[in-house]
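To the structural biology subgroup,

Please find below the input and predicted structure for Lytic murein transglycosylase, which we are adding to the shared reference set this quarter. The sequence is reproduced verbatim from the submission form. If anyone notices a discrepancy with their own records, reply to this email rather than editing the shared folder directly, so we keep one authoritative version.
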Amino acid sequence: MLRALAVALALTASCAHAETPCGGSFSDFLAGLKAEALDRGIAPATADRFLASVQQSRAVLNRDRQQGFFQAPFLEFSRKLISQNRLERGLDLARQYDAIFDRIEAEYGISRGVLLAFWAFETDYGAFQGDFNTADALVTLAHDCRRPEIFRPQVFAAMELFAQGAFDPARTTGAWAGEIGMVQMLPEDILENGRDGDGDGRVDLKTSAQDALMSGAAMLADLGWRPGEAWIEEVRLPEDFDWYEAGLETEKSVADWAAMGVEPRDGGFDGSGPGASIVIPQGRNGPAFIAYPNFRVYFEWNQSFTYVMTAAYFATRLEGAPIYEAGSPSPGLSGDEMVALQERLQARGYDVGGADGILGAGTRAAVRDVQRELGLPADAWPTRALLNRL
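Predicted structure (tokenized):
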């Protein structure tokens, strides 16, 4: 799940058809897409051929509405996604593609574990790249009125790829949200960051691991990855740690965290300088990490905190880090309990972004604040005890 789920791309202000970006008759919507394509300079024949076979996909809409997998807490989610077999397979592929990883590290300063983790989680190292028709998926989600501003530009990017001979609207398949290839990139990202990693003169993200890895690295660099720097590292926190200081909202230098008693679990700190945060994905009784500035780049790839935390952690495992110290965090809330908590937080004036049952950044921040208000340890981890107090 790349930037389709992470970045709300604004429609071009000058677009003559931006007033009606979604909904209505599907045939009328296709006509509107063609008209906008012509305004963008796409040849009429290209737009006609691209749209000729497009159909609305109910299966895509169903998947868009059913993303409960990302509601699992970090420990549960990470244990599901990180198996010994997946770890060993990643290490084998690191050796197999050592040359391209060396090239990526030299050109972009991105460690191989980072790309291996995305490759693993997005498509199980290329084995399952999705069988949804990509053109159908993009047009369906552009027509749907939930997030048209994200997907409508992707339709025109796919048309550009089609004009270049790099996309077949009738045959190109991928994930339900329109991503393509081994590391799942959207058409705009392919246009901007597609790279020929194997030297055959074309970019093929579905069958060339070198192309996919090189393109993924280019995209991370474009998103702001800081070359040669770490992303997260497991730490141990002192007993008197101020839990309200944890969370991505608070940034300090590594030296300041060390002065507060934060210690790396294994050896010295991997990072230095400002902009580091302490992350406790399941509260004060669970594992703890120091997050460096590169960790924030992950949220440009996917906005799910649980996914990001797991991908970043798996990247460290692929580079030799030990299994985290799980601790004994309090049980999390069910989906219905989370909705009830969010409704009660909203009633107290907190903006949690809606009662959707997902523990996002807004809910975590509200939980942390209300915990402090109630005199509880403000670790941003919602529990049944907190729900009962509210």
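Summary notes: Residues 232-318 form a domain with the Lysozyme fold (CATH 1.10.530.10). The first strand starts at residue 132 and ends at 133.

Regards,
Lab coordination
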